[in-house]
Specification:
Elements lengths: L1 H9 L1 H19 L5 H17 L3 H26 L18 E9 L2 E6 L2 E7 L10 E8 L2 E6 L1
Parallel strand pairs: 3-5
Antiparallel strand pairs: 1-2, 1-4, 2-3, 4-5
Helix pairs in contact: 1-2, 2-3, 3-4
């Protein structure tokens, strides 16, 4: 424990850089976005502590304040700067929107079955049309595990 204390007191720059690198490595592994801001704060604290000669207590206070400020500001403003997210790669049903297929079982009371992308799905008509088996359809939405379709 004396080694860590000695490192932190005598070489604060490297201690803060090590913390920043560790936080950044964990962020890269998890991809959560939450540890990016503490990692950046540790980097700034490393520069201040290393070059301005700040003692450990104010450096920790600076790190805490920077972490709170950057996390709050980053979470508040960063999503607005990033482009909208595309489809979820794990959303197997949602990805079918826009795809076309064929009616397997005729639609009765707005409900029927369609064959799209190699699978048979329960479907509901988005408009008031009635479709017979073999008709082409396009997926316009998803409601639970049921596809919303219209004639193509």
């Amino acid at each position: 424990m004396d080694f860590v204390q000695d490192l932190f007191v005598n070489h604060p720059f490297w201690a803060w850089i090590a913390l920043a690198a560790a936080l950044l490595a964990i962020e890269v592994l998890t991809g959560s976005g939450w540890l990016l801001w503490p990692a950046a704060s540790a980097g700034v604290t490393a520069i201040v502590a290393g070059f301005a000669g700040v003692s450990p207590a104010p450096a920790i206070a600076l790190f805490a304040a920077l972490t709170l400020a950057t996390t709050f500001l980053g979470r508040r403003y960063m999503p607005r700067l990033l482009p909208g997210h595309g489809q979820d790669i794990n959303d197997n049903v949602g990805r079918l929107v826009g795809h076309q297929g064929r009616v397997v079982a005729a639609f009765r009371d707005q409900h029927g079955r369609v064959f799209i992308d190699g699978k048979e799905w329960a479907a509901e008509l988005a408009d008031g049309d009635s479709l017979e088996a073999g008709a082409r359809v396009e997926v316009v939405g998803v409601q639970g595990a049921r596809l919303k379709v219209r004639g193509a």
